[in-house]
Amino acid sequence: MDAWKNQLFFGDNLDILRSGCIPVGSVDLIYLDPPFNSNATYNILFAEKGGEKSAAQITAFDDTWHWGPEAMAAYDDVIRGDRPKLADLLQALMAFLGRNDMMAYLTMMAVRLVELHRVLKPTGSLYLHCDPTASHYLKMVLDAIFDFKNFRNEIIWAYKGGGSSKKDFPRRHDVIFRYSNSNHYNFYPDTIRIPYQAEGINRTDDSMWGRHKGTSKIYKPHPLGKVPEDWWPISILNANDPERLGYPTQKPEALLERIINASSKKGDIVLDPFCGCGTTVTVAERLKRRWIGIDITHLAITLIKKRLHDTFGPEELEDFEVIGEPADAKSAAALAEENRHQFEWWALGMVDAAPAQDKKKGADRGVDGVLYFQEKDDGPYHKIIVQVKSGKVNAATVRELEGTRKQEQAKIAALLTLQPPTRPMREAAAAAEFYKPEMFPELRFPRLQILTITELFAGRQLEYPRWVPSKTFKKAVRRYKGPTPQEQEKSYPKLPNSE
Ligand SMILES: C[S@@+](CC[C@H](N)C(=O)[O-])C[C@H]1O[C@@H](n2cnc3c(N)ncnc32)[C@H](O)[C@@H]1O
Fold first, then answer.
1. Distance from the CA of 398 to the center of ligand 1, in angstroms?
2. Which of 174, 188, 238, 330 is most buried as measured by Cβ atoms within 10 A of its Cβ?
3. Where do the domains of the chain lie, and which CATH numbers do they carry?
């Protein structure tokens, strides 16, 4: 327990779970909110900078899992695996659905749920968040893996929202399946109780003693309130919610707070294998759980690191390790070789820059990332453009970047490169001269900066005025980690035989 460090993994959760780095039967609670195959391509919006419309949209992830070689391999794994019931079910679903995106989604979920089941403690619980389009199929998959006897709840997360259909009832709920790993599972109802809501009646009043239907057993309302029903009216994060970070599928902390409180206690291990912008790990950190998060995009990993630091600050944040990120120039080169976009996202994170455009849609103007700074708190935002290069670079690359800098009216341009710059490149960068801040004109910042990945690992940083904190990414609201003053004051007497 002492040697434990919270863990944030970059990578495909299937590979990470299969690698064995999360021991069998070690996790107390799993929450997963996988991308659903709604055919939508989610865009991410970064914080708007002083009046300028946020142009920085990039594809965070494509949430469609198509039928293809990967889904076929996963299907084969299940059919040949040691879960005959699951194999029967997938074959039946295949006969019914055929080889389409829904089948791909269910197959990819099935192989991951098998691994998640393996790492769950016998007393542990799993909450699977999905929407009604696939929930009925997923429930069968869960029954086959966890056993229908261990189905505990179908939780309806109900919310309000704009937009309505003329021909249907507006769809305003998600489904969260709760399964335990055995009959001996942990559940902590007292941590999630809510007020009784019988209108006009104080149900904690002694006069509310009652009798159980058909028995002579007497009950008294619980002084902490009631355990919530299996439908949870919790608001979604609206556009102006201070909690909102701009990640398209970000879930409210209140939702995760209830789940984590209900099915884990302090010190327990909480795992989110699709952790997005890190709602689960942030709430787990606040509630003093140990946590493991996994995401397949460097963008999510960068956002989570930032969210945790902004939310808790260096004094309150427990040490955590990021696994799967390049640790040196060699592994950065391997990442670039494997996936150029991931390399770009990762490299931009090294200088705190946000991705600049939709890589799938946008024409590449040679700007991969942007960064904003101010010289004073209420002053205008100044732009820094960042270009990331994993391949060959030469003096022309630098001169073109300087041209783009002028076009974009950016104060500074940075070239992040795996290859070391040649002398002509350094000369071309020097020709761009210096940016001198209005407030302190005696300071000078090179207008064109070349930073190699090796230098970034050695701690070299972009040079620009930093006396006003950067607002490139939306900042998470700072949270106090201990109990709130109200919580500290709350002390309820315990009543015997109460429910
Ligand atoms: C619906 S979002 C989760 C949002 C999250 N609950 C939150 O509040 O921010 C799904 C996430 O799963 C990630 N993802 C998709 N496929 C993955 C995989 N195979 N392994 C790990 N993460 C994956 C995506 O990058 C995305 O961030």
1. 36
2. 174
3. 6-192+227-323 (3.40.50.150), 202-226 (no CATH), 329-457 (3.40.1350.10)
